[in-house]
């Protein structure tokens, strides 16, 4: 399985993701500059955290117009896998690949912490190595991680089972319905505010995030 990690001016978690896919999982991975238009060689596109284009206007608002994001939309529409982490989640909502928006945290403060998450579904490419209802711990680091959507959109997300991760016990940022991560209806696009790549190596104190990446190798084996 070949991974591609998008790199925008302002990305700062791209190397973290590269370490997981290339070094820990030993999968071919290439860094994809934001001006590229051909990503046809990739199986999985990962939009990492950071501050794409300095987060001017709104988080992810400029990145959505980049050439590589137009290619990523086509990649997703073909049913291929796309993962957006933190700023990547924001980019996915701005690009229309996921519904809703990420707005300022409830207390208007940047949050850097480790939080418990509840896994809502295990029948997706992303979550198949977890147990339904399992509580995992992942780091967060964001100032605009408050998930918002109108009532009809929230209802559709819940009815379709598109919420894959929720904040457990305490909501750190005010996200509606404690939403920490959602997928599209097809299930091939996932956006999440917590950082699984920062919880994939024992040296960092936990490996709860590694299962998400390992699950994709099983997908590749069955294709």
TrEMBL record:
UniProt keyword annotation of Nucleus present: no
Domain of life: Bacteria
Keywords recorded for this protein, A-Z: ATP-binding, Cytoplasm, Glutamine amidotransferase, Hydrolase, Ligase, Nucleotide-binding, Purine biosynthesis
Any one GO molecular function term: phosphoribosylformylglycinamidine synthase activity
Pathway annotation: Purine metabolism; IMP biosynthesis via de novo pathway; 5-amino-1-(5-phospho-D-ribosyl)imidazole from N(2)-formyl-N(1)-(5-phospho-D-ribosyl)glycinamide: step 1/2
Catalytic activity, reaction form: L-glutamine + H2O = L-glutamate + NH4(+); N(2)-formyl-N(1)-(5-phospho-beta-D-ribosyl)glycinamide + L-glutamine + ATP + H2O = 2-formamido-N(1)-(5-O-phospho-beta-D-ribosyl)acetamidine + L-glutamate + ADP + phosphate + H(+)
Compartmental location: Cytoplasm
EC number: 6.3.5.3, 3.5.1.2
One Pfam family cited in the UniProt record for this chain: GATase_5
Entry keyword annotation includes Cell division: no
Active-site residues per Swiss-Prot or TrEMBL entry: 86 (nucleophile), 195, 197
PROSITE patterns, sorted: GATASE_TYPE_1
Primary location class: cytoplasm
Family matches, as CDD domains: GATase1_FGAR_AT
Function description: Part of the phosphoribosylformylglycinamidine synthase complex involved in the purines biosynthetic pathway. Catalyzes the ATP-dependent conversion of formylglycinamide ribonucleotide (FGAR) and glutamine to yield formylglycinamidine ribonucleotide (FGAM) and glutamate. The FGAM synthase complex is composed of three subunits. PurQ produces an ammonia molecule by converting glutamine to glutamate. PurL transfers the ammonia molecule to FGAR to form FGAM in an ATP-dependent manner.
PANTHER family per UniProt: PHOSPHORIBOSYLFORMYLGLYCINAMIDINE SYNTHASE SUBUNIT PURQ
Record NCBIfam families: FGAM_synth_I (TIGR01737), PRK03619.1 (NF002957)
Subunit structure: Part of the FGAM synthase complex composed of 1 PurL, 1 PurQ and 2 PurS subunits.
Protein name: Phosphoribosylformylglycinamidine synthase subunit PurQ
